[in-house]
Design goal:
The protein has two domains: about 280 residues, Zn peptidases (Aminopeptidase, 3-Layer(aba) Sandwich), CATH 3.40.630; about 160 residues, Glucose Oxidase, domain 1 (3-Layer(bba) Sandwich), CATH 3.50.30. β11, α10 and β12 form a beta-alpha-beta unit. The chain has about 475 residues and is an alpha/beta fold. The N terminus is likely disordered. The protein has an eight-stranded mixed β-sheet with strand order 1-10-12-11-13-16-14-15, sandwiched between helices. Strands 3-2-9-5-6-7-8-4 form an eight-stranded mixed β-sheet. Helices cover about 40% and strands about 25% of the residues. It is built from 16 helices and 16 strands. It holds the Pfam family Peptidase_M28. Keywords: Carboxypeptidase, Endoplasmic reticulum, Glycoprotein, Golgi apparatus, Hydrolase, Lysosome, Metal-binding, Metalloprotease, Protease, Secreted, Signal, Zinc, Zymogen. It comes from Hymenobacter glacialis. InterPro entries: CPQ, Peptidase_M28.
Length: about 475
């Protein structure tokens, strides 16, 4: 048997080892809470997200891919990152679609006695125009299955009116958006397959108002391209009611939209080089483009300014990340995701090692936490950091979708986690893709808190890895 003092020394050594193991497994250092508090103090007292967003939305405005405003936003993003003092700022060239709306759309319900009722409509992004006024009968459906079950004579030569509403029983509006979205994305294809002349789609929102919601739609090369328009929820409800009273009424639509040749554009990238593991990269980003009806404030101006701010907050608090951190302003998320695909292609081409990627594309509302797209063991690692984020109401960590822009990285370079910033979404789809998505709808504190939450997670990822 060893002497008593040797036993005590051995026991003390084991205790120290146990403490070290416990500290490692918990992924929490006492200094972490101090570092995060500094990040939040900087964001709430000296944050720059709100004023950056004011300029982006107010001076530049809507930034549809291919537009002059999109190019102005690229130049603004590069200059803003350079002023923030990032180690490197550069552009990634990418060709993007160039769809233009043209003059304001017109929609009217026409009764059998010639009475006209004007309703709020807008073209869906990527739609063909009507080539003047297009008038036809209307058949209402709630699903593709219902459409396919109709006899040919009930559909041919008419507008198909897709009127499936949001499921308001769902707690997460994003889930309702996903379940209703097929009629917007593919409604024109399904309508044309049955010989319809166009598609009318109920706006993807629970709000009852006169603000039509645009959004991307698609065509099938093997199927005739027909015009596709969104009706405001009030317009959809009115059309449905009038159809019940008169199934022979007609709808007159006029849209001047068209698709022009692709245009050269850019992703904007700014990075801070890691001090210890610079070859490991953490990406944080939002999309610089927006739809053309509003100012692209919540979708996705907030994600853009939060991504820039996340890096600025690290610099301002004196923290040098151990891994390289990149802020990426992606171009063309809304109608093509060309920027996200090009970023991933270049990452693979350059054989880059991406640890994780974070995206903010759900509006700049009050932070709740993060959605983690990763294996269960990796999600569990994030859960161990929740106590550090909970004092700031950002500790909710769960498995979920990372984001559209960062999605292509999954196959290209296989990061350990794709992460979606999760803000409160109850109001998001009231203004999503509408003329109401403007700067005045953004709350300064909510916006700055979101940037701080993202910076805090980057701090933890950079320090501890995955």
């Amino acid at each position: 048997m060893a002497p008593a003092h040797a036993q005590r020394a051995s026991k003390a050594s084991k205790n120290k080892a146990a403490v070290a193991v416990a500290a490692t497994s918990s992924r929490v250092d006492p200094t972490d809470s101090v570092a995060l508090r500094k990040i939040y103090d900087e964001a709430l007292l000296r944050g720059q997200s709100y004023e950056n967003l004011r300029y982006l939305t107010g001076t530049i405005g809507a930034r549809l891919s291919g537009s002059p405003q999109a190019q102005q936003a690229v130049e603004w993003g590069k200059l803003t990152m350079e002023k923030a003092g990032f180690d490197r700022v550069y552009l990634q060239e990418v060709m993007v679609p160039h769809w233009v709306r043209g003059k304001k759309e017109r929609g009217e319900i026409v009764g059998n006695k010639g009475k006209e009722v004007k309703v709020a409509v807008c073209a869906l992004g990527g739609s063909v125009g009507t080539g003047g006024k297009l008038k036809a009968g209307v058949v209402e459906v709630r699903s593709f299955e219902e459409l396919r079950a109709l006899p040919e004579a009930a559909v041919k030569g008419k507008f198909v009116f897709f009127n499936r509403p949001f499921d308001d029983a769902l707690i997460e509006p994003g889930t309702a958006y996903g379940r209703a979205g097929d009629q917007r994305r593919s409604g024109a294809i399904e309508a044309a397959k049955r010989g319809a002349v166009g598609a009318l789609v109920r706006s993807l929102t629970s709000a009852r108002d006169d603000n039509p919601h645009t959004g991307t739609m698609s065509y099938d090369p093997a199927v005739t391209k027909v015009p596709a328009a969104a009706l405001s929820t009030n317009a959809a409800d009115r059309l449905s009611l009038l159809l019940k009273a008169n199934s022979q009424l007609e709808f007159e639509l006029e849209m001047a939209c068209e698709t022009l040749p692709d245009v050269k554009s850019y992703n904007v990238v700014g990075e801070i080089k890691g001090s210890k593991l610079p070859e490991e990269i953490i990406t944080v980003g939002g999309h610089l483009d927006s739809w053309d009806l509003g100012q692209g404030a919540h979708d996705d101006g907030t994600g853009v300014v939060q991504s820039i701010e996340a890096l600025r907050l690290l610099k301002a608090t004196g923290y040098r990340p151990e891994r390289t951190v990149r802020a990426v302003l992606f171009m063309n998320e809304e109608n093509g995701n060309r920027g996200g695909m090009e970023y991933a292609r270049l990452a693979a081409q350059n054989k880059e090692n991406h640890l994780a990627a974070i995206e903010s594309d759900g509006g700049g509302f009050t932070p709740r936490g993060f959605n983690i797209e990763a294996d269960p063991a990796t999600v569990a690692k994030f859960n161990k950091w929740s106590p550090l984020l909970e004092p700031y109401h950002a500790g909710g960590v769960k498995a979920g979708h990372g984001g559209t822009d960062i999605g292509p990285l999954k196959d290209a370079v296989k990061p350990k986690a794709l992460i979606g910033f999760d803000g409160d979404s109850q109001r998001y789809f009231d203004i999503h893709h509408t003329s109401e998505d403007t700067f005045d709808k953004v709350n300064r504190r909510e916006l700055e808190l979101g940037g701080a939450a993202m910076a805090s997670l980057i701090y933890l990822l950079s320090k501890y890895g995955l």
